[in-house]
Amino acid sequence: MSTYQLVVKGCLVLENGAVTGELGINDGVIETISSDQGTLKGARTLDFGDAYIFPGLIDAHVHCYTNPEEGFINNTASAAAGGFTTILDMPYDSPDPITSAERFKDKVALLEKEAIVDVGLWATVAKGGAQQIVPLAEAGAIAFKLSTFEADPYRFPRIPDHEVLQALHLAGGTGLMVAFHAENGEIIGHMIEEYTKEGKVAPRAHMETRPPVSESIEVLKLMEMAYWTRAKLHIVHVSHPRTIELIGSFQRQGVQVTAETCYPYILKDVSDLEQLGTKAKMNPPLRDPEDAKRMWEYVKAGAFNMITSDHVPWDKSKKNAGKDNIFKAAPGLPGLEIMASLIFDRGVAKGEMTPVQYAQLLSQHPAELFGIEGKGRIAPGYDADFTVIDPRAHWVIDEQKFRTKAKITPFHGQKVQGKVIHTMIRGCTVYDGSEVVQKPGFGQFVAGSASTKK
After folding, report:
1. Which of 5, 52, 55, 154 sits between 20 and 30 A of 181, alpha carbons compared?
2. CATH superfamily, region 3-53+381-436
3. Among 312, 308, 332, 323, which Cα is nearest to 67's?
């Protein structure tokens, strides 16, 4: 009998189901899977009993540098504690977005010094900067993110339609996905102006000035562009069931379009925005209760490719700026430390989602969509990246215990069933259930599929 460097035991969430078994691991890679306990011999053994061992979770939508005071150290520590072994970081860094190969390479160097979990990097383009797409792809970009809504003319610009077409053509040649923040700035800007004139600045106004049509109309336009360019299109943070219905219709026409939603859109609604104010402000906004229920039904039905956090670590001052006027508050929520447990609680613990579905939404599908080799499955030859969740553990979310400086969440005080008790990357423990035990620099850069460095 061979002796493995490490044997991990528990309820293994494999592609076809969850089975009690054990894994033989050498050099950070899974070599053997056994459905019989006690058949594998290890120099070291970790036995998690009846806890679920999921393939390492992947959050494809994280903003580490929207707040530059946070960066990779805090955010990847949060990821490790929340069960995420890989994160994909968005390119809208403050003060300078990732719009050139030079900026991209600088960020990779920083990642290699500071990251605790593995990190892939999104890239974006400036207005008039579509020619940077190929160099960014070759430098290792995991995908491209653009916006139809202008939050900032430099850091988060609206890219004109003719440049969107150019970007889709160029990105199509690299094989990489192009994702969009899809909201219509003309509709939203006009409505905010009118509401402000009328003194309608209470929290609910945030939803009312960003109606569902402001999302769906932009998604329709982008899907038609994807039809003609044959590019891979991805729609981030879908907030309304109408949008995913439209996406489904274009998928049936053969358009290469995928979609994600974020955990708040299926767990909260506009009543939480009204009650909690800036704590629950995000773009797009939380929707009506019935819409949130329908979104959850679409998640269970497999309409969404993945669930993401859209983790944005604003400090309280940015959120509190909108205390008396919701339009002045920064949009976005931290989520890396709570999303995995919240989705487990809502889905697996309540019997509305199988462990396999959970693994698909939070690990397998992101790995497949972004072409991340060796991740997303528990299978021989794959990295020994695992997220271990105790299905019987009950706990209460406490924002003051977050590792991020953004100690603010609309989920504060919520009771949750299902707790991350161990996070492992390449056979090494990064979170032991109470502490993050790896140092900055342990995490590795995850290069995109078009990288010339692979």
Report:
1. 55
2. Urease, subunit C, domain 1 (2.30.40.10)
3. 312
